[in-house]
Amino acid sequence: MADTTEQGLAGRTAIVTGGGRGIGRATAVALAGAGVARIALVARTAAQLDETARAIEAAGAQPVAVTADLADSDSVRTAVEAAERQLGQVDILVNNAGTVAPLGATAKLDAADVLAALRLNVVAPILLAGAVADGMRDRSWGRIVNVSSGVVARPETMPGGGVYAATKAALEAQTVSMAAEYADTGVHINVYRPGPVDTAMQEWIRAQDPEAIGRRLHERFIGYRESGTLLTAEQSGAALVAHLVRREETGRIWDVTDEL
Ligand SMILES: NC(=O)c1ccc[n+]([C@@H]2O[C@H](COP(=O)([O-])OP(=O)(O)OC[C@H]3O[C@@H](n4cnc5c(N)ncnc54)[C@H](OP(=O)(O)O)[C@@H]3O)[C@@H](O)[C@H]2O)c1
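Above: inputs. Below: predicted complex with NAP.
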């Protein structure tokens, strides 16, 4: 077995999608704290990426902000190229960017909105993983984490959130299949379910018109907030990185509660 220095995160290069805020930002900062040397942050909002970049620098890593709309597959490719040009080959990919929209009655869904969710939550992480995995295999070391949701295990808890549940279920199936594809190569590919986390995504759901997204769904998310069950992004990001540090395994469904 290789020693911890070879297996560890120290000195590695990472990409974190959705690194501008929320769980992605907290994960990027936790990676820097774990010794990752270079981190590319990908999202659409430059000002938020810059803010995370400053936090990463303060934690001792070199950041690069890559502004891209990952729902566009051409942008996915150019984002990886931009990250590798500036930071070198990627050792760690955290596919965290995601959308919970569209929410509401299935009968009222618009095809364009459903396809947009699939492009960001499923197509982008698959293309990103595909862009970096062979390089990782050639170097016999790589880590890919696909951020999913506990809703996959209990989709009935999210009436009106069926598209979101479906995209995350698809991502989980692809993750486990890809992990088997890269078995025994040193490339570990796992799912991470981050738990209910107090981020802009939860805030956005609470701000929706209950009539538009469904009263039961709206009440459920108000309840998460009021009952004090939401985690902080820092707790969830730290738990993701703790999985990476402690678990030499692939093809698993990791849950935040395993490392809280
Ligand atoms: N919060 C929760 O309770 C919870 C629970 C389970 C799972 N999750 C999952 O955790 C992940 C992070 O969620 P979060 O709560 O931290 O959400 P968030 O605060 O809304 O952050 C989402 C991040 O993704 C980026 N993003 C969104 N659309 C994008 C696009 N088209 N192209 C590139 N980047 C895009 C956002 O930046 P821009 O808008 O600037 O592009 C932002 O940086 C998601 O995959 C989510 O499904 C969250």
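The radius of gyration is 18 Å.
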